[in-house]
Specification:
globular, alpha+beta, 4-stranded antiparallel beta sheet, 6-stranded mixed beta sheet, 13 strands
Length: 516
């Protein structure tokens, strides 16, 4: 390995590519390659994880010479032989598109001895209308646990699939979640605060490791959340770096009323009703009016505006205001990972890819086990033309959050389509219950790429029935924040095939699965 320029050395299976010296090495000795094969490997290495189309590769490697795909195929064959890549896991063929250099098979060190913890949905022993407050309190314990970095914390959606007092078969719950420990609790809200009982349970035996009662009012509620998280971790880990967690703990609001408004807004934001997004925004705005420095409330106003505006479909003026507010939130709470995550979503919608990846990575640095952030990183990687890395991230998110929201299926289907696995993409997209035009458009593109033109034709007919003014081709060409033109062209090609089949007619009867 070149000691002078280690940043220019790439591990490729049993070989090393030293770009600074222009050599492919095995055991420190050069591996013979023709110049064009080396040029091809160099180009692929500078686009790791991104699908490079055949035309792109031929233009890059043979810029002034007309060659056929046979020259490219021969160069790929030579590289695979040199890399001893018989399984084609280093240089992967993406059907009908091109090739991608993948480093995903390189072994990665895995942490050992880390317990996994799921926080179950706390039982609300007070008024039914206080359930969002109790849920939000328990969710903040999830976030507090994750910031310690010494335990694997399963995501809210998975843990909240089980209510603390609804069952006693803790082993079955632990097995279904993949959790070694469970946190269960009961809470009662009062006019000035909250009373909570929390227990830590070993999932395999049902044994109670620790249980205690807590009571707090006003701003002490946030101290109570941190204390519960600290006691849980102290029971599971012998040593804990208190200084690290204190540094990473974001400043909460000083207003209990603002906090309650935020929690009620989050409950609405996760709904799918016609007015849920607008209602959540009003609650977040009310929280800001109670506490103008409440960073999370500012972040969620920005997110609500982004959702209402249609993400990447939002106007430049709206995107500008969303970014301004999200940046303000990060300034107010630079150690709050959710603020960075929202800002990343805004940057991605504005097609500012480097900034989006920076803030998503910052969110993960602050909270490495946040499944939603990991999944959103997967979506970003797909938008940046790195679908194989995206699938690895999404699979990791699903392991942490096995009972995840439906949008995980959507993000995974986009990554699968971009990687050329249309059958798996179709399966993921089919798991979404919503019969929206954009979903049907993606289904049609998958069927068209698989050669099932009759089904693609039927689906486009259904799109036209439910949304006569909607244009599938315009959606494919302009509404998705892909960084590279080749990815736009790839998706557009599938939609164009489906639309051409629809226009060719006659249209067959649409299948029941494609009816409202």
């Amino acid at each position: 390995m070149s000691q002078e320029n280690p940043e220019h050395v790439l591990a490729l299976g049993s070989c090393e590519l030293d770009l600074a010296r222009g050599l492919l090495l095995r055991d420190g000795k050069p591996v013979a390659l023709r110049s064009k094969a080396f040029d091809l490997l160099t180009y692929l290495s500078r686009n790791v994880g991104r699908v490079a189309t055949k035309s792109e590769l031929m233009s890059a490697v043979w810029p002034d010479v007309f060659v056929t795909e046979d020259s490219l195929t021969q160069a790929v064959r030579e590289l695979r032989k040199a890399l001893q890549d018989e399984s084609q896991t280093i240089i992967r063929t993406v059907a009908k598109r091109g090739y991608v250099l993948s480093l995903l098979d390189a072994p990665k060190p895995e942490s050992s001895g880390q317990p996994s913890v799921a926080v179950l949905r706390f039982s609300n022993e007070g008024a039914p209308e206080d359930t969002p407050l109790v849920d939000g309190f328990a969710e903040d314990i999830v976030n507090a646990l994750a910031r310690f970095g010494t335990v694997v914390v399963l995501a809210r959606n998975s843990g909240f699939a089980f209510v603390s007092d609804s069952a006693s078969d803790w082993r079955a719950i632990g097995d279904s979640l993949g959790a070694t420990y469970l946190v269960r609790g009961r809470a009662t809200t009062r006019a000035d605060g909250m009373r909570v009982t929390v227990s830590l349970i070993t999932a395999s035996t049902g044994g109670v490791l620790w249980s205690d009662n807590f009571s707090a009012s006003g701003g002490q509620i946030f101290d109570m959340q941190e204390e519960i998280a600290r006691r849980v971790v102290n029971r599971l880990v012998a040593r804990l770096d208190d200084a690290g967690i204190k540094q990473a703990t974001p400043k909460p609001t000083d207003s209990l009323a603002a906090y309650e408004l935020l929690l009620r807004g989050l409950a609405r934001l996760r709904g799918y009703g016609d007015d849920d997004n607008e209602a959540s925004r009003s609650l977040f705005q009310a929280a800001v009016e109670k506490d103008p420095t409440y960073a999370l409330a500012h972040s969620y106003i920005a997110l609500a505006d982004l959702i209402i505006g249609g993400y990447a479909e939002a106007s430049p003026a709206l995107l500008g205001s969303v970014i301004d507010r999200a940046e303000c939130a990060v300034t107010l709470a630079p150690e709050e990972p959710r603020c960075h995550r929202v800002l990343a979503q805004a940057f991605l919608s504005a097609r500012r890819f480097e900034a989006a990846e920076h803030h998503l990575q910052r969110a993960l640095d602050l909270n490495p086990y946040d499944a939603d952030t990991i999944a959103q990183m997967g979506y970003l990687l797909t938008m940046r033309g790195r679908p194989l890395e995206a699938l690895a991230a999404l699979d990791s998110a699903i392991r942490i959050n096995p009972i995840h929201p439906d949008w995980y299926h959507y993000d995974r289907s986009i990554a699968l389509y971009s990687s050329g696995d249309y059958k798996a993409a179709l399966l993921s997209m089919s798991k979404l219950p919503l019969k929206a035009p954009w979903r049907l458009t993606r289904l049609a593109a998958c069927h068209a790429q698989l050669g099932d033109l009759k089904e693609a034709q039927n689906i486009i007919a259904e799109v036209k029935r439910i949304a006569p003014d909607y244009s599938p081709l315009e959606f494919a060409q302009t509404r998705i924040a892909f960084e590279h033109a080749s990815d736009i062209e790839h998706f557009t090609a599938g939609v164009a095939k489906a639309f051409a089949a629809y226009e060719a007619g006659p249209v067959g009867a649409a299948l029941p699965g494609h009816r409202e």
